[in-house]
Specification:
By secondary structure, this protein is an alpha+beta fold. It is about 50% helix and about 15% strand.
Length: about 100
């Protein structure tokens, strides 16, 4: 997934990638830079190919980046931030996180 995004950024790095109300639009080149930083951070903790990572976060640009970086680096298991602790625990067990 990351390579496909990198290829798009190489062709049109200044094209819009992420929009959010009240926030500056993130272009493709900036998105790739943010993803690479997140992936490097995850790998520093041993999280990479084949590793499952649960992500619980409210909607927003940072969450979109976290989900894309996690999915590009391993297996992303997004959890609903409105879920109860018991529900999250069950989802994590089902997702083998």
């Amino acid at each position: 997934m990351l390579q496909a995004l990198v290829d798009l950024a190489n062709k049109q790095g200044d094209a819009p990638a992420l929009f959010a109300p009240g926030r500056k639009t993130l272009d493709r080149a900036a998105l790739i830079e943010a993803l690479q930083i997140e992936i490097k951070w995850m790998r520093s903790f041993g999280l990479g190919r084949g590793k499952r990572v649960a992500v619980v976060a409210p909607p927003g640009v940072e969450t979109a980046i976290a989900l894309l970086a996690t999915a590009s680096n391993g297996v992303c298991v997004p959890l609903n931030p409105a879920a109860t602790g018991d529900e999250c625990f069950r989802f994590m067990q089902e997702g083998r996180v």
